[in-house]
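Study the following:
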Amino acid sequence: MISGLGIDIVHVDRIRHWVDNPGILKRFFHPLEIETARSRDRGMALSLAARFAAKEAFGKALGSGLAHFALVEVAVINDSRGRPFLLLEGNARREFERHGGGTIHLSMTHEGDNAVAVVILEQKE
């Protein structure tokens, strides 16, 4: 059963300004996300924008927004085939479990100056 749905869009220029600011990157992104984005060289801002959108979409899917956890506690990681998934730590994990836990489905894309993410939360019936 679907227990939450969230979508978010981020203008890449918003993130492009953060790329050279290590303090902002550490505030909003998990170290694994920063490492992955840096490996994409010129695509770093696109990668981070999609990840930021995923974090926002996750908060929307919970129905509580970002009020109960820090963005750095939600990391978008890619599996061996490149498929993205959310790694939750600390308060983000607790908020997800309080919501009922289950499975998190994530899809991200970017086109031109925009990155979009959709998160679907699914509870076992």
Notes: The two ends are 6 Å apart (CA to CA).
